[in-house]
Structure prediction request, 131 residues.
Amino acid sequence: MLEPQTLMAKAKEARLHAYAPYSKFKVGAALEGKSGQIYTGCNIENQAYGSTMCAERVSLFKGISEGEKEFVQLAIVADVPDYCYPCGNCRQVLMEFSPQLKVIMGNLEGKLIVRTIAELLPLAFDWKGDL
Ligand code: THU
Prediction:
């Protein structure tokens, strides 16, 4: 498993590719699969605002679409005073694939906080059970 700062550096790099002309809020993500492969993501906005996709889900969908089934840790970064937290939609989608996921949240100055996805999404909706 990569050091948190190493994964965060990859998220920062991915953030440079963010397409955010509407909000001007650029987000970067880097997700480490169980295989050790890293999947990066950035937010991609659209003039039809609802079609925007968050950085976290871009990284997750890249991994899933390449055959990765589970993920161990995710780094998220944006230009914020403290930490960039994932939105509720991303928390739910991440939980589906990796209920043990470690989430590293930070800012451009190197501030960093670590929580599990279960801490970020307590009492998560879980209808699929043991499927
Ligand atoms: N955004 C993310 O990429 N991740 C989050 O967890 C929260 C929000 C993006 C979506 C949009 O492009 C911009 O940040 C402002 O909401």
